[in-house]
Specification:
CATH topology of one domain: Serine Threonine Protein Phosphatase 5, Tetratricopeptide repeat
Oligomer: single chain
CATH class of one domain: Mainly Alpha
Structural class: mainly alpha
Number of helices: 55
Strand content: under 5%
Largest sheet: none
């Protein structure tokens, strides 16, 4: 919640304190300032802010040097939300002798109310003599200040320090709850609040925050109950009252909300939240001009209050003042980016302004994150209808009906205000409602096919020259299982409207369904001839190339899709996965890095980025990215699964298992985690447990290619070669374009002493998929094992021709050619080091080639630099000694070798060579 302006609170304090003091003037004359202070304290202890204010003010009037009176006035101003006045009164109290330990918590709260977070950190410390309970409160306030300056890690440290001082400190637990909410961990935040309530059940701040948590969970009834408790405990809270107005309206409790608005008007006449709450009530009553006036008054009092901007924009939209609505919603989206409702309402404004491309840019990211959001699906359906793409429109509208019937219409993650602003805005334009289409789709949902056909036939008469009724009728026949009738209807529609891209796409999908791929390709290509940048038609071709196993064709179409639609997420994700399957994971990662600026907050994108970083051997970055995904998708089985993969890639076995268990806790049926668990159990040599889990998967997914491949992997690990190859053959039959399965089948044949069979599997695959780099690598390894060196080099050359930045191929070619063609070998080695500067094996190849080419001085210079980077690497130390000997520094070489052998007394790969070289040099 933005920081309230101090001006209304100063007016409130004056209106509360001065008149009350005047009305009690006669009674006050009969008491001393000390008695007034005592009465003020008693009143405050009982929650009587009014009585406390009267008595404290009387005491200060009678004795301006009464420090306790000023302290109480400071506390009263804190309750009123006036941090500036609280700070002034506290200064008077401290000047008059209030001890620092008492003053510090009050000062911290006063500064926080004013947004002076850095002042809290600079001026508030923990006195050594402060008791643990007060010290805990003070450390928690410092934590709040760290949050205010945007440093949650330091905030957590201070909240935890508060709990170390007082293990049950409510303020520390409230702070941790705020951190949990910021990370999207609402259940954990609720747990912290409930723990704190056990210590202080009458703490209004805890009840208020619990209300916010229930709102975040979408539970307005529980939120209302929590705000009611907070109001009962601290009656003068504009925030709690205004939030209760919100949640009451969300439940249709208009009269109860009116009572809260009346209370706000009485207690906080010119508070920004009073104007806002009154505006919400008027909005609910469809009094739009009056509501707009209140929302504008809210913004004048608090320019940073985003909700006021949002409702001003929606109100202007409903009044059909589109330029105003666009400007206000743009300000809202700049202040609070990436909200569902902000994006939807801006999309709706763009549609009404007939700016369909911009509308789609606002709406598609919402669907990527929340595929079942009804309003977004409806709007995208209408955009496609306006574009003449009836089939795509039908798909969106169909999904909207399904999601609406399942009650999945909202995905904001917060209690909806219940004002129906999106539905109201949709209903304001008859062209957007598309009632006829919705009626047909509802009939389909209910399987009332006869009624659906009757409605479509009526639409045909009212919509001559439109392809939409034909597409709807085809959908009815598809649902009935009559593809032949559906095809006939679509062809009739195409005769009526030959340039309807949607009809062509529907015919293509029907052809794909019935395995008529050549026919489907013709339909897609015709559609692209009509609309060269149509994404759906492009992706249709992608699917057809995938079915044909044409990886080059898939890559080409996806590259075109990315060029034509940089705003679309699916093409770069699909292409990055294709590159990984083709053994070119670096190309996939480079593609993702290019798209990161556009999609960096999208969970689907971040999830794929984790996979790509693991595929390219960047486990540290993968772990960091997995942490980002967890923030975007807290309590997510997928996020924990990918975190587990990243932990495993970093060699953190225990952390990997823990993440897998958390993933299964979120979703016990999440298949990728269960498959990863099989691998983890086998890696820990718990083979019976791994086999039991695999058997369960096989029973749930009989004949599934992925499960069969996992069965092959487990058999391969147990050296059961025949069982492994049998499982992989079955898996490849189910998934004939899966490169990984083909490679593992070949390995099973190889290790099972069917080397020629393994070579044939890979050779046949390579002939069908010539761009598959990974297969060329495996083939090269097989040829090397068999001593067929020419074929080995040819395989690496093919890999390099496909991917010029293939570090593995460059390194292997450099090593193999260092004797017979050292100049060419050095070219390869230098390129490999440039691409992988942190790889010791790649560096070692470069040095070996330099020594072979008698470039001893350059080799020595590089090795001396490498020794500083990797001082304990035995390979580098041995190579250094060789280079020192080659340039004539025999004494230095002997010294290096002796240091190497002394510092590594155990076995290492180069020990025998190092000992032999040392003996020769010493003898020399």
């Amino acid at each position: 919640m933005p920081k309230p302006s101090a001006a209304p609170f100063r007016k409130l304090a004056a209106s509360l304190l001065l008149p009350l003091a005047l009305t009690a003037c006669e009674r006050a004359k009969k008491t001393t300032d000390t008695q007034d202070v005592a009465q003020a304290q008693t009143a405050l202890d009982q929650g009587d802010l009014r009585g406390g204010a009267i008595n404290a003010h009387n005491a200060a009037q009678k004795n301006p040097n009464n420090a306790e009176a000023h302290r109480l006035l400071s506390l009263i101003n804190l309750e009123l939300g006036n941090g500036e006045a609280a700070e002034i009164e506290l200064k008077r109290a401290t000047d008059l002798g209030i001890v620092r330990e008492v003053a510090l918590p009050i000062l911290a709260k006063a500064l926080l109310l004013q947004g002076k977070y850095q002042d809290v950190l600079d001026r508030i410390d923990l006195p050594a003599q402060m008791n643990p309970q007060d010290g805990a409160r003070l450390m928690a306030l410092r934590g709040d200040a760290w949050l205010g300056v945007g440093k949650p890690d330091k905030a957590r440290a201070d909240y935890e320090a508060a709990l170390m001082l007082d293990a049950t400190a409510p303020t520390g637990k409230l702070g941790l709850a705020r951190l949990a909410l910021g990370g999207g961990e609402v259940p954990q935040a609720l747990a912290w609040v409930r723990e704190a309530m056990q210590r202080e059940p009458r703490n209004a701040e805890l009840w208020s925050f619990q209300g916010q948590l229930y709102e975040a969970q979408g539970d307005p009834a529980q939120a209302e109950a929590s705000y009611t408790q907070a109001i009962d405990l601290r009656q003068r809270s504009a925030f709690d009252r205004s939030r209760r107005v919100w949640v009451r309206l969300s439940q249709g409790k208009t009269q109860a909300a009116q009572e809260d608005v009346t209370a706000l008007e009485r207690q906080f006449a010119n508070h920004f939240l009073t104007h806002f709450s009154r505006g919400l009530l008027l909005f609910k009553q469809h009094k739009l001009p009056e509501a707009l006036t209140e929302f504008e008054a809210t913004s004048k009092l608090n320019e940073g209050y985003a909700e006021a901007l949002y409702f001003q924009g929606v109100t202007q939209l409903l009044m059909n003042h589109l330029p105003n609505a666009q400007e206000l919603l743009a300000r809202f989206n700049a202040l609070v980016p990436n909200t569902v409702r902000g994006s939807i309402m801006m999309g709706l404004v763009k549609i009404k302004l007939n700016d369909l491309p911009e509308a789609a840019k606002w709406l598609l990211p919402v669907l990527e994150q929340y595929p079942d959001n009804v309003q977004t699906l409806q709007l995208m359906g209408n955009i496609e209808l306006s574009r003449g793409n009836s089939a795509k429109a039908l798909e969106y509208l169909n999904r909207a009906v399904v999601a609406g019937s399942a009650g999945r219409s909202r995905a904001t993650g917060k209690a909806d205000p219940g004002l129906g602003e999106m539905e109201t805005a949709l209903a304001t334009d008859p062209a957007l409602a598309r009632t006829e289409v919705q009626i047909v789709l509802i009939h389909l949902q209910d399987k009332a096919y006869a009624k659906a056909i009757e409605s479509v036939e009526a639409m045909k008469k009212r919509m001559p020259g439109s392809a939409l009724p034909f597409n709807l009728l085809a959908e009815v026949y598809v649902r009935q299982g009559d593809d032949a009738k559906a095809e006939a209807v679509l062809k009739e529609g195409l005769r009526q409207v030959p340039d309807d891209v949607g009809t062509l796409q529907s015919l293509a999908r029907l052809a794909i369904k019935n395995r008529h791929d050549d026919q489907a390709r013709q339909y897609c290509q015709t559609a692209l001839g009509l609309q060269p940048k149509d994404l759906a038609s492009r992706l249709c071709l992608v699917e057809l190339y995938e079915r044909a196993g044409d990886q080059a064709g898939v890559a080409k179409e996806l590259q075109t899709a990315i060029q034509d639609h940089p705003e679309a997420l699916l093409p770069p994700l699909t292409l990055s996965r294709l590159y990984a399957r083709m053994g070119q994971p670096r190309r996939g990662l480079a593609l993702l890095e290019t798209a990161r600026a556009r999609f960096g907050d999208n969970p689907e994108f971040v999830a794929r980025l984790v996979e790509a970083q693991i595929e390219t051997g960047q486990p540290g970055q993968a772990l960091e990215t997995a942490g980002q995904l967890l923030k975007l998708e807290p309590q997510s089985a997928r996020a924990e699964y990918l975190l587990a993969l990243a932990e495993g890639a970093n060699g953190h076995a225990a952390a990997m298992r823990a993440a897998l268990q958390r993933s299964l806790h979120h979703n016990p049926k999440f298949r990728p985690t269960r498959e990863a668990l099989v691998r983890a159990l086998a890696g820990e040599n718990q083979l019976p447990e791994a086999e039991r889990e695999l058997k369960q998967l096989a029973s749930e997914y009989p004949g599934d290619g992925g499960v069969l491949a996992l069965k092959g992997w487990l058999a391969l690990r147990q050296k059961q070669w025949s069982a492994a190859t049998a499982a992989y053959r079955q898996a490849l039959d189910q998934d004939p374009n899966n490169s990984d399965i083909a490679v593992e089948l070949a390995r099973g044949q190889w290790f099972g002493n069917d080397r020629e069979g393994g070579l044939k599997t890979l050779s046949d695959w390579s002939a069908r998929h010539p761009q598959d780099v990974a297969v060329h690598h495996v083939l090269a390894g097989f040829y090397g094992e068999m001593g067929r060196r020419a074929e080995q080099l040819a395989a690496y050359e093919k890999a390099l021709a496909i991917d010029p930045d293939d570090t593995l191929a460059l390194n292997e070619l450099a090593w193999e050619l260092k004797a017979e063609n050292p100049a060419r070998a050095l070219q390869y080695a230098d390129r490999a080091v440039k691409l992988a500067p942190d790889s010791v094996p790649v560096f070692d190849t470069q040095v070996a080639v330099l020594i072979e080419q008698t470039e001893f001085e350059r080799a020595l210079g590089l090795l001396l630099q490498a020794k500083k980077r990797w001082p304990d690497n035995t390979m580098i130390l041995y190579r250094l000694a060789v280079a020192q000997d080659k340039v004539g520094s025999t004494a230095q070489a002997i010294k290096t070798l002796r240091e190497l052998l002394a510092s590594h007394p155990g076995a290492f790969a180069e020990r025998k060579d190092a000992e032999g070289l040392l003996a020769r040099l010493a003898a020399r």
